[in-house]
């Protein structure tokens, strides 16, 4: 039974009750009125049941809506959090892509400012930063090449200046030595002849050696010569020293046959030998030995001047090799010190690795000259 039929039945019962009431038929009127009341009560109960059912249905639906709403809120929160994290990571990556090349450029600039030009910049981008990195690398290479050119130019200028100083020094010594040298040689020749006529042959030979030594030193000043000529000049010097020290000194000279015509600056050997005599022979009563050995090894001529003297202190060796000739002794016969010879050799051959000094305390010193054949042969 639906509500329409129940309402119609209620209305019909009410109309019948009213009709019988007008006809004064109280029994039927009361019957139909009670029927109407029953129907009304039934309608009310049914309505309450329907409303209660609807409320229960609505309550379940409402709970589902609340639950879905909570899920939606949680989903929205996680979605917002995910979007925020994604945005943050994207921003961090974007920022890092921009700042990392700049940091790399800054680090490279610091390396260059500290003098390191070897570190290149590798930036894999396709924007202005990549262009800036390429320009920076090119600038680094240009600066490195420029500094190299400046260093080479400075070295050449320094060597040229040293060469000029040596040339002036040689010219001055030439001028000083050319003060009437013929008079000196003529005088020595007269003394040699007089000694020979007086049967003083040893004195005559000594005077001849002095004359030949002076002639060689004056003639060879500032020019190049051969090892053969250097040895001849050195032999005159050794004759004089042998007379001076007699049995206190022993000289030995060994020269390989293929070394005689090798060219080198004049007065190269004599200053080293004279230095050995002054420091290794002269101060000691027992004297000592000096050995000169010249031989060809590979692409170089090796000249060794060795003595068995007290040796050279390490600091003095380093000072000589580095070019700080403090208190350098200049030879009596040539006026040329060891450092002067080393400078001339380095300029003549265009190399710094020319000399090596091996010295052991109380055992002796060996000076080794390493001369390139291509530049002197």
List the SSEs and their pairings.
Elements: H1 3-22, H2 26-113, H3 128-177, H4 181-197, H5 201-220, E1 224-226, H6 227-245, E2 249-255, E3 263-265, H7 269-281, E4 288-297, E5 300-307, H8 314-322, H9 338-349, E6 355-360, E7 364-372, H10 373-376
Parallel strand pairs: 2-4
Antiparallel strand pairs: 1-3, 4-5, 5-7, 6-7
Helix pairs in contact: 1-2, 2-3, 3-9, 4-5, 5-6
Q: How far apart are the first and last residues' alpha carbons, in Å?
A: 138 Å
Number of helices: 10
What is the H/E string? HHHHHEHEEHEEHHEEH
The amount of beta strand, in percent, is 5-15%
Overall average pLDDT = 78
Helix and strand composition category: alpha+beta
Annotation, overall tally of beta strands: 7
Shape: rod-shaped
Q: Strands of the largest sheet, in order across it?
A: 2-4-5-7-6
Using the CA coordinates, give the radius of gyration.
59 Å
**Main pleated-sheet profile:** 5 strands, mixed
Uncertain stretches? 326-335
Q: Roughly how much helix do the residues carry, as a percent range?
A: 55-70%
């Amino acid at each position: 039974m639906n509500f329409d039929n129940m309402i119609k039945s209620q209305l019909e019962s009410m109309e019948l009750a009213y009709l019988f009431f007008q006809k004064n038929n109280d029994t039927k009127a009361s019957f139909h009125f009670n029927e109407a009341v029953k129907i009304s009560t039934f309608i009310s109960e049914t309505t309450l049941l329907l409303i209660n059912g609807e409320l229960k249905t609505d309550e379940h639906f409402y709970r589902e809506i609340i639950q879905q709403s909570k899920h939606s809120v949680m989903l929205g929160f996680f979605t917002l959090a995910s979007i925020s994290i994604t945005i943050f990571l994207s921003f961090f990556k974007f920022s890092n892509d921009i700042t990392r090349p700049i940091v790399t450029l800054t680090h490279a600039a610091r390396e260059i400012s500290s003098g390191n030009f070897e570190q290149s910049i590798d930036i894999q981008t396709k924007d202005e930063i990549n262009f800036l990195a390429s320009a920076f690398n090119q600038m680094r290479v240009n600066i490195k090449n420029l500094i190299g050119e400046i260093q080479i130019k400075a070295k050449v200028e320094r060597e040229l200046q040293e060469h000029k100083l040596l040339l002036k020094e040689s010219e001055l010594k030439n001028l000083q030595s050319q003060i009437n040298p013929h008079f000196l040689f003529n005088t020595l020749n007269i003394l040699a002849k007089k000694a020979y006529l007086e049967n003083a042959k040893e004195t005559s030979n000594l005077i001849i050696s002095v004359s030949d030594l002076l002639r060689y030193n004056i003639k060879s000043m500032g020019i190049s010569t051969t090892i053969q000529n250097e040895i001849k000049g050195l032999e005159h010097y050794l004759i004089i020293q042998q007379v001076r020290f007699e049995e206190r000194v022993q000289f030995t000279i060994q020269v390989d046959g293929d070394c005689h015509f090798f060219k080198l600056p004049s007065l190269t050997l004599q200053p080293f030998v004279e230095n050995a005599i002054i420091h290794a022979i002269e101060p000691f009563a027992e004297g000592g030995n000096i050995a000169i050995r010249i031989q060809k090894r590979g692409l170089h001529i090796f000249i060794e001047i060795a003595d068995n003297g007290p040796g050279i202190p390490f600091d003095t060796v380093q000072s000589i090799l580095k070019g700080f000739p403090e208190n350098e002794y200049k030879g009596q016969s040539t006026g040329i010190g060891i450092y002067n010879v080393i400078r001339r050799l380095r300029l003549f051959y265009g190399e710094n690795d020319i000399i090596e000094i091996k010295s052991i305390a109380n055992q002796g010193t060996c000076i080794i000259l390493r001369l390139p054949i291509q530049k002197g042969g």
